[in-house]
Amino acid sequence: MLTNGFYKTLDKVNEADVEFVCYGIPRSGSTLVYQLISGIFPQGVVKTHRYCPQQVKTAVSFRDFRDVVVSLWRRSDPQNISRRMTAAEVEKFAALCHDRVKDLNRYFDRGGICPLRYEEFAANPALVFAAIKKTFGIVVAAEKIAELVGHYSFERNRERSRRLGRFKSIDPASQLHGNHMYRGEIGGWREFVTDSGAERLELLLQAPLQRYGYLG
User: Fold this and answer.
1) How many domains in the chain?
2) Is residue 188 assigned to a domain?
3) Per-residue model confidence as pLDDT tens digits over 110-129
4) Is residue 170 predicted with pLDDT exceeding 80?
5) Which domain holds residue 133?
6) What is the CATH number of the domain that holds 141?
7) Can you spell out the DSSP letters for the chain?
8) What is the pLDDT of residue 19?
9) Per-residue pLDDT tens over the stretch 152-163
């Protein structure tokens, strides 16, 4: 059985060595999901941002793709919190997001997954346990849920991330990076784009925004 942790790919890994896959499009709360799931399985829990072919228990987290784009851009340079995206940056980071959406689509097309919408579980992480119970029949004691949710609260995770400093610094146990977290808010993307940038972003991301219920 694999050691709990982050894996770029599982292409050469035997399915029997994987207990649970925590996939997330980047910046969609997949680290929190991994923290909670690895708290109930001592081994075999994989965090990844790519498609894994293994037919095992899999949670798939996603988020308004406009928030994903802005979060990726903001993380690329901590100074970006004090300015707005340029037109070129909107194009560049929307393209990066589109590339990641391809893997997200593969999971949903395959089926048999536990979908986790960031906007629903970020403020109430206990919903992750309700979702895996509904999907996979995994029952976790209320006391354990409270312990894990408290240990990995937004405030505690942000403090862990702050102590790490740069994004390239990582804590293997929690899978947190430095500069990993900002405000964790929903819809914060709008603050960092102009009106024309917002229109362009919506156009560029129209297909996934519609497919996953972020546009009517």
Assistant:
1) 1
2) yes
3) 999 999 999 999 999 999 99
4) no
5) 5-211
6) 3.40.50.300
7) -PPSEE-S--TTS-GGG-SEEEEE-TTSSHHHHHHHHHTT-SS-EEEESS-----SEEEEEE--HHHHHHHHHHHH-GGGGGS---HHHHHHHHHHHHHHHHHHHHHHHH---EEEEHHHHSS-THHHHHHHHHHH-----HHHHHHHHHHT-HHHHHHHHHHH-STT-EETTTTEETT--S---SSGGGGGS-HHHHHHHHHHTHHHHHHTTS--
8) 97
9) 887 877 877 777
